[in-house]
């Protein structure tokens, strides 16, 4: 998996964009310009580091089920003050959790026709971090 940090990015039609939603529930859907995952507003009320990490892993798993190869996170939608983290730490947590959620031990499994679904690229849009978030773990 390739992880990039950029100041701005325009999504392509086959990429998944993670946004802050206006509804109380999380929602995964297709628009004309891209896939979108809206994080429910209830999630932001009771945020902790563990729930933030679980949310990122959940998004990766759902994207794999839909065979999306590229994820785009905007680090500014996450409440830095509530998590007591810097924006750089948010970016590192997103990168780490994406790596962990994307890994599957497929060595002894029969390969399906289309291959095993995997996330090939994660783009983290961040105003302050311009270096790659983390090298690949696996």
Task: Report on the architecture of this protein.
There is one protein chain. With 138 residues, the protein is an alpha/beta fold. Helix content is 30%, strand content 22%. It is built from four helices and six strands, in the order ββββααβααβ. The protein has helices at 41-45, 49-65, 80-83, 87-102; strands spanning 2-6, 15-20, 27-30, 35-39, 70-74, 121-125. A six-stranded mixed beta sheet has the order 1-6-5-2-4-3. The longest helix has 17 residues, at 49-65. It is globular. The termini are close together. The mean pLDDT is 83.
Keywords:
single chain, 138 residues, six-stranded mixed β-sheet, alpha/beta
- Biggest sheet: strand arrangement: 1-6-5-2-4-3
Task: Give the biggest sheet.
Answer: 6 strands, mixed
Q: What would you call the quaternary organization?
A: single chain
Q: What is the overall shape? A: globular
What structural category characterises the helix and strand content?
alpha/beta
Distance between the termini: 9 Å
How many helix segments? Answer: 4
Level of helix content?
Answer: 25-40%
Spell out the blueprint of helices and strands.
Blueprint: E1 2-6, E2 15-20, E3 27-30, E4 35-39, H1 41-45, H2 49-65, E5 70-74, H3 80-83, H4 87-102, E6 121-125
Parallel strand pairs: 1-6, 2-4, 2-5, 5-6
Antiparallel strand pairs: 3-4
Helix pairs in contact: 2-4
Q: What's this entry about, in short?
A:
With 138 residues, the chain is α/β, with parallel strands linked by helices. It has four helices and six strands; from the N terminus they run E-E-E-E-H-H-E-H-H-E.
């Amino acid at each position: 998996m390739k992880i990039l940090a950029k100041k701005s990015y325009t999504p392509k039609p086959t990429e998944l964009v993670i946004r802050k939603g206006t509804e109380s529930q999380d929602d995964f859907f297709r628009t004309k310009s891209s896939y979108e995952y809206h994080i429910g507003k209830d999630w932001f009320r009771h945020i902790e580091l563990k729930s933030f990490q679980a949310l990122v892993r959940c998004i990766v798993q759902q994207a794999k089920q839909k065979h999306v190869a590229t994820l785009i996170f905007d680090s500014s939608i996450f409440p830095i003050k509530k998590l007591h983290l810097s924006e750089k730490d948010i970016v590192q947590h997103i990168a780490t959790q994406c790596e962990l959620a994307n890994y599957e031990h497929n060595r002894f499994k029969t390969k399906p026709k289309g291959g095993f679904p995997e996330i090939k690229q994660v783009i983290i849009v961040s105003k302050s971090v311009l270096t790659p978030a983390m090298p690949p773990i696996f």
